[in-house]
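Go through this pair.

…
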Amino acid sequence: MGSDGVAGLFDPDRVAVVGATDREGSVGRAVTENLLTGFDGTVVPVNPNRDEVLGEPCVAGVAEADAEMAVIAVPPSLVVDVARECGEADVRHVVVLTAGFGETGAEGADREQQLREVAAEYDLELVGPNSLGVMSSPTGMNATFGPDAPPAGSVSFMSQSGAFVTAVVDWAKDAGLGFKDAVSLGNKAVLDETDFVRAWGDDPDTDAVVGYLESIDDGRAFVDAARETTDDTPVAVVKSGRTDAGAQAASSHTGAIAGSDKAYEAGLDAAGVLRAESVQELFDSARALAGGDLPESDGVAVVTNAGGPGVMATDAVGDAERLRLASFDDDTVEDLSAAMPDEANVYNPVDVIGDASVERFSEALDIAAQDPDAGSVVVITAPTATLDFGELGAMIADAADDHGVPMAACLMGGDRLADARDVLRERGVPSYFDPARAVAGLEALAEYREVRGRSYPEPEPVDADRERVREILSSVEERSDNRLGVEAMEIFDAYGIPTPEGRVVDDAAEAQSVAEGIGEEVVMKIVSPDILHKSDIGGVKVGVPVEEVGDAYEDLIARARNYQPDATILGVQVQEMIDLDAGVETIVGSHRDPQFGPLVMFGLGGVFVEIMEDTTFRLAPVGADEAREMTAEIDAAPLLRGARGRDPVDLDGVVDAVRRVSQLVADFPSIVELDANPLVATPDGVRAVDLRLTVDPEELES
């Protein structure tokens, strides 16, 4: 890496524009013009066919530019050679605007691979290709071909879409949001979201990091970087493609439910990254997060000069996941009663009524903000003739400074409130039009407070017979199918996950013998990798008396052969009866995501799993605390804890099973997906009753 790493992309003294030109409408002209307009440093046009560009003298090659950074806007066929010239000239920071790479097909992908190799050879910090460019407000650097530079501020912004950068920059001017650095990631041939999260986490002038992402290339590296950054600097993203059900067909319940978005949800949560549902929510959150103060409690005080909007704010607080209306103590109510007119409402939300002056607003705000339960404050104003809005904005900002309590202003008007909006923007207090959006900004602060308080302990070690698991998984190499079922139940035994007594047998006499060793009645299931839904074909018999086991064996085999004559039948599982009525059927599963690796799922199991989708996911492996959180997150959690007179199940046993399954799939990358369904939880313990897993033979250890 260069001596100043990724940060050097945002603070060069000299920038070479390779492919600079005067030609109207060209990328080379647009980026040169943008740099010449506002950049504090020196711009060096590079073009062997010109003596000057836009009045600046041109040099023929990068080597003559003596620059720290190069912006490349040449045709695709020349980019790799120019990148090599940058490396030879010791220009470590390179931004490739040119398109025509991995996004265009085989030839472009090959060119992108060559670019990656050159970057590795010369240790280039390279943005792009197919990037709009980079911007940095402190030096006025707009090294993009977008139409405008962003307003200055303390939020740093990355986007996988170049067009989105131009839209956000344009919108930010009106929205009261300023940027420190911005980058269009392009194709992410070298630098990706992880590099920028890490760099901005180290940047004292970046108060919040926001991003628009379509993909995360290396999920686990991103999680590690974001965990470090979010200790001091909040990170919020919009991840598009929320409804993508996943590119590959999944044969397990977990795989079918997981899809790609569940992996991103689990990954972003594990990273401590706030996920916004929309672009508006992302930047509403960013405005609040850039302020710096965090609420000490979840109580929200509302101070308003308009009754209706006060009720709207109250509703929004009620709808928020982490916030509640602050409960004022007697001193606060008495002080407000003394300071406000008789018609005012002195309980939360405080209504200072429509004729309020700035002074009355200020008194109410000071009293409400000092209440012990007020962790944050929403100040709402509708335009009235009794207010000077410049004064009002300064008063709100002063109150925020004096009390050290996060404040969100809700300015419900247009141009008449512009003076207040301008003052608040300068003073770093977020303002919004809609009370619900102001509350959403405060909710982001409450969520970030939780993130900052998190620790990430290593999962407790699991004793396991890993060699036995390796043998069982390797059995797929001798089979035509890479799926394993109950014949692989020993995997659970090897990891200390309790299973019912039983065995897979391949003749009637052995079935009889196993049953006699179990008890008076048994469960019997056909074992075939080709028959996934056994109960649909009568391939499961429950409560078979021991003396009838031989006949039941023959019947199950016959049914399977009639249903699917070419199916591979491994035999019949004879298993101890578990009293399902005394327990709760849950599922513990895993799905291996291409970006984030193995996820572990817990939820309501049995036949309900795909209908109800009452499930929760984490990155595997998880420790006991995380596993316990998972058991509390599902809608059916009260069933586990003994709802409606039922006895509570052995929750410690459930937690232990989740933990052990998560370690199993983390230890064996060859497990693509796995279901323990049902994992029956009773007051006396848990039992994994069934197993289905898919193995990737190429990932099997030799």
Q: What stands out?
A: The mean pLDDT is 93. DSSP finds 22 helices and 31 strands in the chain. The CA atoms of residues 23 and 633 lie 59 Å apart. The longest strand covers residues 671-682.
